[in-house]
Amino acid sequence: MLKRTFLPQLFLVAVIKMSSGATVAQEIITWTPNFRDSDIMEVIRVVQDVTGKTMVVDPRVTGTITVMSNQAVDADSYYDIFLRALDLAGFTAVETEPGLVSILPSQEARSAALPIGQSVQGGRGQNSGYVTETIRLDNIAVNDVLPVLRPLVSQSNGQMSAFPDGNMLLLVDTASNVRRIREVLAQLDQGVAPETEIVSLKFAIATDVVELVREMQQGRRSTPAEEGSVNRLGINADPRTNSVLISGSARQREQLRTLVEQLDRPREQTGNTRVVYLEYANAERLAGVLGQVVENTFNLNQGENSGGNNSSVRQASIEADPDNNALIITADMDIIESLMDVVHRLDIQRAQVLVEAIIVEINDDTGQNLGIQWLFRDDSGAFASSFEAGNNLTQLGQIAEGALNEDREEGLTSLAAGLAATAGQTIGIGRIGSSNDLLALVDMLQATSGANILSTPNILTTDNSEAVITVGENVPFVTGSYTGANSNGNVDNPFQTITRENVGTTLRVTPHVNQGNNVALDINQEISSISQRAGAVDLITNERKIETRVTVADGEIVVLGGLIRDNIIQSESKIPLLGDVPGLGRLFRSNSSSVQKTNLLVFIRPTILRDDLALRGATAEKYQQIRNQQIQQQSQRNILLDSLDMPVLPEWSSQLPTENSNDDTGAERTAGDNNE
């Protein structure tokens, strides 16, 4: 045994390497381990000095160690050699904490506080220490690989356990051996494309079997690891063929196939009742459709098998539960299977269509009027004449009274009233003398009119559903009257019968969404108005109606035009003989002409909304338009309204669905601030 006094002679120290071109290089210190039957406690002290680690030695650690080497190594490699020497001597070093190493017999290492998951991925200096490692498998079952890996574990002190629920391996072994096992597992745990198998059902319904099996699988999963690739069993239903599709490893497919076959058993009774909750379709309407399907199936089978028994089809019952929007189907399994296929195809979300319309009445009215009015007064009387088509003598009298009145204030009042009631431009000349007065008024008028937007309705409806919007009045119309006479010949209890009808704008639209994002629109547009306000008996209504069917692309605008009506009116008023005098006759006549054109145009734009996101976007657009109008009105209000708080809708940003709510919300808020 080597004594401690000889230990300094066992190391070769201080090898200094200088890099070319540098005056000072990094110093690298190396040691050459060379022990021959050295006491293990003395070797532990040397390793402690080299590595700087704190060593806690079990009292049972005794004996000698022999290491022979002529190669200088660094501290990490030196410690690695020491660990291997301990392993050969039946001891092991466990680094429970950084810098704290426990040296104990190898058979006690498994029960010690071993580090978990360290030293396995590589690194120098910890290749032989005992560690505890958990390895999760992704593509193969842990029970399948356990017999293959057991021979690789250290026979003396290594341990390998399986955790099937998590598909994991638990290893207690040296770090180097754990690394070797992990490398083997990396080769074994390779993903393989699973095979698919089809299991046809005779009695059960495929969708029910798949749902039941999936619930059983969910119940078995106690940890998230169970949902890994190795347990990703594929099981799906094919309602068209009433089959179950199974994918996975051969063992997994065999287990599922056995389970499905056990579930595919005939019922003891021939009838069956199924409750189907609908998501989109109307239960009452769909019940009628399914009832017709059953009836047609019965008639078809009766025609093909005139002598056969179709009682199973005849006994099928379909009831609707409006409160729960559900169907209650009672029939044999084959009939239920057929009806369920129809239900799945009809219970789908239908697209919605936003129909925006602008109803415009274009009036191209042009009227011109030119006339002269005369007034003469002397002491014996007065004379007035008007040559205008309207024969505006009332206004002429007021103007004359104001101009010729001796009372100045009263005359100005009458003159202002007459001029205010006269349409167009009025120019007057006059001569007022002591005995006679002369007044002439020239009246000129030109009037034009343009477009008039009657209504801008917006309607939202589902595909193939009619939508109606009405804006107007409910007007009474007399439909009859009754007058009775009593025994005295007097009228007794007279009364009239009155019916009320809507007068205004009515738009009826039924959209039909076709393939290729085209929309067929059944349009019924009606505009009615009352031509004059009289009694209920004398009411006259003007009605303009468009009824058509058009096909429009999604988001495009189509215009529907009405009949253009031209009405030209020309008139001339004059004094006989004087009005025919060339040149001078224009002073004694009045000409009037007017041209009236009326055209009704309806602009339609359909927009298809296939999901909730599109619907909310369209709603947000209209909402923002109203909010912008309120903001504009608030900024343009006059000084009289400054003290009033005009309402403004809040921002829509909090209502919009976004993938990144923080970013989008900020963008919407910024946009709203800019608008303001």
Automatic annotation (TrEMBL):
Q: Where in the cell is it found?
A: Cell outer membrane
NolW-like domain: residues covered: 132-191, 196-269, 273-352
Q: Cite the record's Basic and acidic residues compositional bias ranges.
A: 666-676
- For the keyword Transmembrane, the answer is yes
- Gene3D superfamilies according to UniProt: 3.30.1370.120
Family, per the entry? Belongs to the bacterial secretin family. GSP D subfamily.
The identity of this protein, by name, is: Type II secretion system protein GspD
The source organism is Pseudohongiella nitratireducens
